[in-house]
């Protein structure tokens, strides 16, 4: 049998990984500033994470939510404290899309309404309503199309206010990524986020912060929304939450009361996923990873802003994007093949940097050296420098 061929894959086969590095089948190291779409938060195979998983496997690996599992309560306690939301409630599931699907469903149950406001260039996952809420025509099958979604321009406060004054009574939820990931690292304005909060309060709608990519410490605060000093009613999480072990979840405000059997999942909250996520939180605390994300992020952004070839360097913490002039081919490929640095992209001319939160200074420098070399060797920039010299 063959694999169902739906992925564009790099010409790279990995065999092992440790910290900020992955190794190919010839044991060649690559500096991983992408973490398989922002998943690696505490570094590949962190020894504490490995030991926690092994030790959990020796006790109990799986049971469903038809019994009590103490480790789920341990995770809820720890997460509530580290996220600064002790009064919130935790619902566990398995992925980012599932988290958003449940968040939207819960908002609709809670409000009795059925419209969802979402924004241009957003991505919320590939399941039914999460996909409809995202701005991704290419992945949307006819069956996924929904007339429940009102899509508005990102960061357009006036359009948002107009939409609520026209349809506010029908709006169950507003879902937003405070920093768009797949959309190219676009940061929501604090004023836009506080307007969402105010309008949701005024019209009785639920504010969902999709923190699947930007949350769990990546931006230098636990939730990216925290930078705006605004609170959501539901936070969706996944990716960095398990450092590679599949786990997702919702933090749900105390105003939203649980109703038996409204939400559910067979695998969500299994003991292995809880152990992985506890290990992530323990390492984040012990190694002050949110501070490190802030410091290394500021260092990288300052250095990137000094490179004249790059445009519009943006982001927060270790979620960084920048534009290349659209004509430039091959920088990402050169970084990978010549300098053995893995980065992400968003469209043709955006590079995304999503390294582990314990990125070391020497590795941040190594990336900058590789990038400077790749830029200076690139034909497009050589030509531009020559043209400038002749002008
Ligand atoms: C912001 C955001 N939400 C949701 C998802 C979907 O997560 P998953 O692929 O785990 O379903 C992603 C994945 O890239 C994402 O970036």
Describe this structure in words.
The model has no long low-confidence stretch (mean pLDDT 96). This protein has two domains: 128 residues, Aspartate Aminotransferase, domain 1 (Alpha-Beta Complex), CATH 3.90.1150; 240 residues, Aspartate Aminotransferase, domain 2 (3-Layer(aba) Sandwich), CATH 3.40.640. The strands form four sheets. The chain has a seven-stranded mixed sheet with strand order 4-12-11-10-7-5-6, sandwiched between helices. Strands 1-2-3-15 form a four-stranded mixed sheet. A four-stranded antiparallel sheet has the order 13-14-17-16, covered by helices on one side. By secondary structure, it is an alpha/beta fold. It is globular, with a radius of gyration of 21 Å. It has twelve helices and 17 strands. Pyridoxal-5'-phosphate binds next to helix 4.
Bound chemical compounds: pyridoxal-5'-phosphate
Low-pLDDT segments: none
Report the strand count.
17
Strand proportion? 15-25%
**Largest pleated sheet:** 7 strands, mixed
Number of DSSP helical runs: 12
User: Can you identify the CATH class of the largest domain?
Assistant: Alpha Beta
C-alpha Rg, in Å? Answer: 21 Å
Shape field: globular
Which structural category do the helix and sheet elements fall into? alpha/beta
The neighbouring-strand order within the major sheet is: 4-12-11-10-7-5-6
Question: Could you say what the CATH topology of the largest domain is called?
Answer: Aspartate Aminotransferase, domain 2
Name the CATH architecture of the largest domain.
3-Layer(aba) Sandwich
What integer is the average pLDDT? 96
Head-to-tail CA distance between termini: 60 Å
Name the helix and strand elements from N-terminus to C-terminus, one letter apiece: EEEHHHEHEHEHEEEHEEEHHEEHEEEHH
CATH superfamily of the largest domain: Type I PLP-dependent aspartate aminotransferase-like (Major domain)
